[in-house]
Structure formats: structure tokens, C-alpha cells
């Protein structure tokens, strides 16, 4: 049975709601399921568990925190990634901090989902951000699934986790379909990466939709005798340091492809961890959005500032040559 | 003025209809939020402004930009991501701006522009000018705290700004009654801002209401709030043409069409004159389409041009 | 009840006076925002609640926490950063919480807690309980968009929450008249929330007003808003004891003292009874001070304990 | 003449206002100068140029953007660092993006100043953040001066710059006093670091108040024959990569001390840049706040999660031993 990434997220929500009456959804236009993430859930669970909110992101994010403090497990859908900027205080400074500040008196199990993060073709400057590194920096658990199975499994784990978790579903991944038996869908633990393709010459670390790109580059390069290992951390924070260093111990070469900005982004963290812990045969490389990137509207310009396969191939050749 | 208002609503209508075609044909990538049905608001508000005034616009902004006098060819080129676009293809539909005309930009974040317009209007006054700002937003934006905060700043500091709420009944699929507790004008009044509900299907009524707000503002009496009741005849966004969302009935949409601003204003213009305006608009839009389609695509190597206004410190 | 209310205001007053001494002596690090002068608000509001209800508090929160019944010894220990503190010394003055008593925490971000309280109250109702939430905030918070957004959610969804605005005339040094356009109750009413102005120096009046709001809320009729007019007798924060800020006159402060809630309520209690209460409070606070001062400091090795509620996935 | 860091900031504001009538200030309690940053400026420049704002951070941040679009140069004081979370959208998604999105039609020269960033003794979880890495990640120019002269010079440059600039003045630095001739106060260019102390064994990169700590550790270690070079980038973004790599080419060893969280923070970026461009004699080290750090109130706990001299000494020994 073919299952799309978006449908897998939808299934995860449905299963989580069926499993636990404390789970409920809130967000904009989720009753009619404008993004399709919540398709069918209003009919199945009723309006009490699928709340359409006014355009009041700050208040409804804190509202979810309050509901979580009272024992619920809210899941918020954010229509566009920059809404996370608007509620940054409410997530980083409120939801995240309650547990420690109260000396462990409470927990805030809220899940924030962005179905369609990163560039959405033609949505331009204010709708094309991919701010997962920001949440990793402040210490909020953050996942970016790459496959339908992981989309399902990580969203389920995020909802079950007792802390706030941000789930980025890159727009470039929503349409991915895999042949899957529904029975094989299981929770995927937070903080555990996977080797998406084993190889021996270089480790390419990739997240979300870029895992596909990394795999197809690996395919292509295998034709010219280059063996690329693709490591997909799946969780941005906490990073699977063991998985990463195990891979690097084998390949001793590293390229990270990352759809966030270069400076102090996810790729910077991977390079830093690797520099602290691993030995290399050549300097590692980052393939990222440029610093300060604002995505221009015109399609060719938008594409030009996104990390892509060509840049990845160039970077792989560079780390192999330098050795 | 009667004729001018008709020309404006007609221009916006036909621009939008053509833009939707270009979305369908793929010349416009990413779709648009059509303004069809709401033309009277942009037309009436902008007709009350002077060239030296400023506006801010929204995700549903083509009408505002055209009513303010932007070149349709350059707006269309912007929607097509061309170098001759208002923003050199960098902004697209949701960010169209023309600072030469005082258009400080459409804004893709609901509720954000009200405080930007307030700051701009305040600055103009501080600089000794008698500029007024008009800032457009939807009924959905009435629930964004940052917009409500802007009402307070504008009222406290008597800023010459006209807050124009286009109440088209929905925020995407959310009916205004489920989203706005209390009333829209009541919210503005709570900040001490005079607030009026206006028939947003009639450009002349919108113009009259705006004009008295502008007079107040220029006289140093501070902000005015207008709730323009209107209706969106088409989709929230062209994506809705593919995914049918069920949040309003076809009967309701038909009822909306019964108060078409183009017809309301058109009925005030003699048939021959109306035909002449229609022909002129069509010719203008033909030329605009030709110009936009013929305009160069920006060079991807320049993708990050304009990222910083002071780039010299970057390395 | 008369006596209980007196005891509460007296307890808060004396707690604060002692806390200020501990700030001076260095036992409390970082200072506090004294509640002196505003005691009647906390006392009256909390007296109208049931044990199963919940509250949220502010940066100026000791009064709310004490009125809600928290152990003064554990609150004081919290201010001193001790292991026996309400939050095990992790929160300090601005984050004191006692979930066992439904105190969901003081919040150091002005305007933030209103929406948290609204969510908690909604959740309790969804879970079939008849909980009411009371959420405290200042006049300054009335200008925070996120609080205004919360009014809307509470009104729309008929959430059983009492919004308690402590209008003490200033946000730090900013007079309310320079900060709030329109009126405070008018703002709440604009969201369809019944709003009342109450004499915030009189605990009984506050109690009565809160009680009727609580009844409405429990009956499923949604939120109520109370503007409690009050006055802060002391500094915004104890740092002001060192840096004199000139934003209000000594005459004004003296006038404030003329309506001291401790005296107002004290006058209703027979002298002997009052003396007995005072003595009991003093003994309680002596014991609290002894207990807090004797409590262990937390182990720095456990500085990040409680950082995550599900730490097992961390590495 | 002794000049304190805080007074230097105050002088920079006064000079910038005197130089350019387009400069004006807004913020909370700035007329009475609750933080002392704006002391004397109301009297000197009048209420038209020193605006006390209601507690409406989001609106007044956008208000400043609007005023900047109309030709002004607003300077906003934020009383506490977490207010930057509250206005993250308004800075990262509005002020920062206008120039590119409009195709260069406008500029947004707003300066945001936080006098007292990082831990302020006893202010606990929600008032003790040091979020400079977040602004660097999104590409907003960001400075963290370490000395009174740099506080003056960088604030002046920030105000004159045509882009938004965030100025973090760490609470640990506000009290620093240096002997300075006022005549020597000059603008300090953005993006240019300085060697605060030359050395040959290891480069310690430090920012803001931690520069002092680095210098005193360098002093201490010189007694045991270790020569520490202290490099102060001064600007977090754009980073002075040349200055950094020049220093590293000499020392071939690196420790970064950084008051932001470890994951994807400033230190991660320095390690990543170094890994890409430099050769090392030993793996570099980071001394940072722990991941996800929420500062506990109790003083000893607060101190325990901040990077300090002891941790720095340990890290320096580690990079020296490993060679
Ligand atoms: C702050 C914010 N929230 C959500 C969105 C997504 N969004 C775009 S338009 C829209 C509806 C806006 O409704 P309204 O203000 O009534 O304007 P209308 O679309 O009806 O013109 C939404 C939810 C956004 N762009 N910004
Ligand atoms: C969002 C936010 N802005 C600013 C501050 C800094 N601050 C703390 S208390 C305060 C004044 C609050 O005034 P009000 O709400 O009237 O409460 P009061 O202090 O008078 O009790 C300010 C500005 C803050 N903590 N949070
Ligand atoms: Mg609408
Ligand atoms: Mg107050």
C-alpha cells in the first residue's frame, strides 16, 4: 500500500487521538483541513477535539501550554513556518521553561507541527523559512522526518513525549510516497538517527526532504565509484551523536546538507561535534542556505539560494579531493 | 470621480481575472489571493488619499496596489517574478511594494502591517509633513495582538492613520462570528478610536467615509477605523480552485455576487462611457500582459542582491 | 470571613516587609517586586475560589501565592533559593508555583499568563470539572497583544476564567493614562466580557465582585473581567530603593497610603481579635524565616534537574 | 578619565542623536532611564526623541520599522533579553526582510539594544537569556561589545548602519570601567574582531563579558608557561573569519567560550568555520551554557550553568594535552 508522507502524519494524529483522549488538535482552518494534515479528524473525533482558532497565534500557543499543565496533550498545527517566529517566546520562554522553573512540578507535552516548512514554491520571503536550528539552539526537542514511516513514527513519539516538541514536515517531503504495510508503522524514538544508505568514502548528513537528494546523489556517484553513506539524524535536537560519530569513524569525511542558514545552523552543530570528536582525512563541508537568506520570489532565484544536489556533488568531490 | 472609481474597480477586477488565468497557465507560480468582490474598498480608500500619503497592504493586496496607482504591467511582472516587476521579481504577490507611490508593501503576516503604517505615519508627522497612512487588513487580523497593540499606539500618540478593516466574512475558512468576540468596530472604539461600519461594496461610500477620516487625521486628531463590510467572491487563495474546501455554500456565494462593486459603480456611469472605460482597461491590461511576459527573468546569480542595505560590512 | 480577609492582607504585608529586609541583608538575591498596598486584591480574589480552582500570578506575585494558601515558609525559602522552596529554589520570586494548590505559577513575562490560565480552565472544563481560573495581571499588561488575544479566546469559547487587572496606576514608571488609550474595562467589554471596576483597596468589595464572576463562570457563562483600582505603596522593584526614579511625588505616595487595605480591613475586626491575628501572623513568619534560613541550598550538581520532563531521550 | 561600559553606551546614544536628527529612542521607562542607558537624554533632546512606550513590544518594534522606512533611525531599548523572543518575528521576518523583498526599494536602519543581556543575578529563568546566536542564524547583524570603547564604537556603527542591528550589552560587562580619553572614542566597524591579547599556544575566542574572563585566565596561565591568545570577534554576525583564521594559523589550537547554549550556538559556528578552513594540532573545544539551559534561580545553580573561568582553564589544558 502506498502511503504519502502527509497521509502518514494524518494517520499519526488519528492514532494518537484514538489512543489517548487527552490528545486534541488546535490551529487555523484545521476543521476543513486546509492543509490536509487533519483530514477526516473532525468527523471522527468531533469539534471538541479539533479546534479551529482565530488568528491569535500567541494566545493559542500559551493556551495549549495551559491545557497541557492541566493534563492534556495538545497538538498545534501552524500553517506557515514563520508563525513559529511569532510564537517563539511562547515556546522557548514559556512551554520549554516550566518544568525546570517550577522545580519539576509540571510538564508541558505540547506538539507543534508545521506541515510545509521550508520553501513552498512561490510563497516568497515571509513564508519560506526553515527555522529548526533555532529550536535546537534553545533546547526544544525538534524533529524533521524524511520518510512517511518516520513522519508517522516521530509524530507519534512527539505527542507521547512529556516535553514540547516541534515537528517540521518540509514541503519538499510532503508528497513522498512509500510502499508500506500500515501494520509496520510504529513509533520512532526521538534522538535516534538512521543510516539511510551505507557507504564508505564520505558521510553525508541530511535532514528531511534533503535526504532524498542525498540518496539520489549517492546513487549517481556510486556510478563513478564513490561510496556515499547517508546519515539521517531525524531528530535535530537531541542530536544522535553516537550515530553520527560511528558513521564518521568509518568514512573520515563529512558533508552536511542543511536547509537552514549557514551561521550557527544545524550543519554548524554537526561540524562542531565532529571537530570535537572525530578525525578527518579532509576538512568537512557545509551545503546550506546562505547566511541571512531571504527567499526571493522568482523561482530561479528561490532555487538558487536553496541547497541542492549540484552543490552537494561539488562538496563531496571537494572533500574527496582534499584527502 | 464616479468614472474614476468605476475605472479602478473594473481595472482591479479584470487584472485579477487575468492573473487567475496566468496562475492556471503556470506563468504565475505559487498562486494568488484574489481580491475579486472587494474592489470597492481599495478604490474608495485610495481615492481619498493624496500622492504624498502612504499605504500598507496585505496578502490579498493587488487591489490596494492598483488603486494606489501602481503600473499594472509592473505589478503583473512582479507576480510573474520578472526583473521589471515592482520589486524586481523578489517579492511576488504577497510583497508588492512601490515606495515611489508610498506603497510600503504588502505583508504576508496577518496583522503585521498596522504597526508599520503607524510608525511611518508618525515619522512623517515628526518630519513636518502632513502625510496620512492607510493600512488595510482583514477581519481575521482583528484577532492578532500586534494589530490591537498598534491601535493603542496610534490612539495614544494621535497618529494620522486610517485603519481599514476589510470584513469579508472569513479568515480563510473561519467565519468572523466564530473568530471575533464582541464587534469589530467595538474593538477599535475601546482604544478611543472613532470607528464606523461602511458598505464595502460601494466605492463612493467607502470614499466618503475615508475622506472624513483623512481630514481628521490631517487636522491632527489621530486615527480613524473603518470596518468595510465586503465579500470575497472567489477563493481564499487559488489553491482552493483545486482543493474544494467546504466552508460556505454556493447560495451564499451567489448572494455575495448580487452586490458586485463593479456593477454598483458601473450603474452610475453612462453606458457609452462605461464601454469606453472597459475598452481602455482591456487595452491597458493587454499591454501589461505583453510587457510582463516579455520582461526578463532575474539572474539567479543575483539572488541575494538587496539582502543588506549596508552590505559593505558583510564578508 | 472578615477576620480571614484581615489575616490574609496582614500576612501578605508582613511577609513583604520581611522579604524586603532579607533583600537588604542579602539573603534574598536579585530583589523582589513588593506587593505592599495591593494586598486586598489577592485576598479578595482568592477568598472567592474553591480549593479545586487554579490561579496564575505575575512578577509581583507573593500576595497571590500567599492568599491562595501557600506555605509562607516554602515561599520564603523559594525567594532565598533553597531546596525546601516551593520550586526547590529553581524559580525564585518571579516563578513561584504550587501546583498542589492550583497555583500554576507566577510569570515574568507581562501579559503571558492570561492565555495560559485560559487554556488550563478550558481543559478542566473539557475534563468535566467545574474549575474556575483566576489570572492576575497589571495595568501595563493591558497593552500586551497576547493578553488581548486571550480575552478573545476566553469570550469565544466561554471559558471559566476571571481576568483580574490590578490597576496600580503604573507600569514600572509609565502612568496608566499615558499607556492605555480608552479605558481598561472598555477593552475587556469590547470582547464581550462583562467588566467591572472594583475598589481594590477593600478586600470585601473585591471578594464580592469576584464571587459573582466565579458564579457566572461556574454556571458556564464564560469569563468576567475585574479592574481592581489599587496603588503600589513601595518600589516597582527593590532596585528602586537604590536608584531613585522620579515618576511620582511623595505626596502622591502618601495619598496612596491613606487607603491602606490592612487598615481598611483591620478596622472591621475587633481590636483584640486583630492583635491576636497579628501575633499569630508574626509567629508564623518568625517560624517561616527560621525554616527558610535553615533550609539547605540546592546542590549545584543538580542545576539542570527537571530541565526535561521526558529526559530519557536526551543524550 | 574612567568610563564605564554603560556610560559609554549612553554617550554613544547622545552623540548619535546630536549628529543626526533622524535618530530617536523608544522603549519602556527610558524617560526616567530606569536602566540608566538613556540617562540625561530626555533633558537634552526632549520627549519627541525619547519615547516611552506602553508594554506593546511587538507593535513598537514594527512601529520602529515603519519609522525607519520613512527615513528615521530608531533605537529601541529592550529591558530584558527575552523580549527579543517576543519580537523575533518583527525583527527576523519583517525588519530584516524588507530590503530584499522589495528589490532594494528601502532600508530599515533600526538598532535594538539590550542593556543587561545574559544572566542578571537573581532574575531567574525568563530573564537570563543570551540569544545572540539566534539573530546571527537568521542573518541579522549582531554585536556583543566587551569593553567601554567597543560599546561606544559598535553602538555608533550600529546606529549608522543601514540595516537592523542587535546590540547585546551583557550584564556582566555593564560595570566594566576603563581609563579612556573621551576624544579617543570612535566608531568601531561592524564585522571586525580584535586580538585582545596575543599569544602562541592556543586561541581562545570570547565575546562580551567573557573576554574579561578569558584575559584573566590568560594571565593566570602565563604563570605556568602557557601563552593564550584571546580573540574577541566583537561582532557575532558577520563573523570576522579572516581575523579568526589568522589567529588559528598561528596557534593551531582553539577553545571558544560562549554564553549561549551549545547546540547551534556561536561556538558551534566558530568550530565549524575553523574545521572547514584550518588545521589543528588537537580537537577544538567549546565552553558554553548547556543545551536547553534554563537558568535556575538559586545563585549557585545559576552560576553552575554559566561558562566560567574554571571550565575555560580545563578546556585549555585539554587542547594542549591532546596535541
Ligand atoms: C499571523 C498569520 N497567521 C496566519 C497566516 C496564514 N493566513 C494567511 S491569510 C489568512 C486569513 C486572513 O484572514 P483575513 O485577515 O480575514 O483576510 P482575508 O484573507 O479574508 O482577506 C491566514 C490564516 C498568516 N499569513 N499570518
Ligand atoms: C513583556 C514584558 N515586557 C516588559 C517587561 C519588564 N517589566 C516587568 S514588570 C513591568 C511593568 C508591569 O506593569 P504592570 O503590568 O502595570 O504591573 P505592575 O508592575 O504595576 O504590578 C515591566 C515593563 C516584562 N517583564 N515583560
Ligand atoms: Mg477575511
Ligand atoms: Mg501597574
Could you say what the CATH architecture of chain B is? 3-Layer(aba) Sandwich
Most extensive contact: A-D, 52 and 52 residues
Main sheet of chain A?
7 strands, mixed
The CATH superfamily of chain B is Thiamin diphosphate (ThDP)-binding fold, Pyr/PP domains
Query: Helix count of chain B?
Result: 12
**Architecture (CATH level 2) name of the largest domain in chain A:** 3-Layer(aba) Sandwich
Could you name the CATH topology of the largest domain in chain A? Rossmann fold
Which CATH class of chain B applies here? Alpha Beta
Bin the strand percentage of chain B: 5-15%
Order of helices and strands of chain A: EHEHEHEHHHEHEHEHEEEHEEHEHEHH
Question: Could you name the ranges of chain A where pLDDT drops below 50 across 5 or more consecutive residues?
Answer: none
Question: What are the SSEs and their pairings?
Answer:
The complex is a heterotetramer, with 2 copies of chain A (323 residues) and 2 copies of chain B (315 residues).
Chain A: E1 2-4, H1 5-19, E2 23-27, H2 41-45, E3 50-52, H3 57-69, E4 73-77, H4 83-86, H5 88-95, H6 98-101, E5 111-117, H7 132-138, E6 141-143, H8 148-160, E7 165-170, H9 171-174, E8 177-179, E9 194-197, E10 202-206, H10 209-222, E11 228-232, E12 235-237, H11 241-251, E13 254-261, H12 266-277, E14 285-289, H13 299-304, H14 309-321
Parallel strand pairs in A: 2-3, 2-4, 4-5, 5-7, 6-7, 10-11, 10-13, 13-14
Antiparallel strand pairs in A: 1-8, 6-12, 9-11
Helix pairs in contact in A: 1-8, 3-5, 11-12
Chain B: H1 2-25, H2 39-47, E1 54-57, H3 62-67, H4 72-79, E2 103-106, H5 113-126, E3 133-138, H6 145-156, E4 161-167, E5 170-171, E6 174-175, H7 176-179, H8 184-189, E7 195-199, H9 203-218, E8 224-229, H10 250-257, H11 261-266, H12 271-294
Parallel strand pairs in B: 1-2, 1-3, 3-4, 4-8, 7-8
Antiparallel strand pairs in B: 5-6
Helix pairs in contact in B: 1-2, 1-12, 2-9, 4-12, 5-6
Bound molecules: thiamine diphosphate (2 copies) and magnesium ion (2 copies).
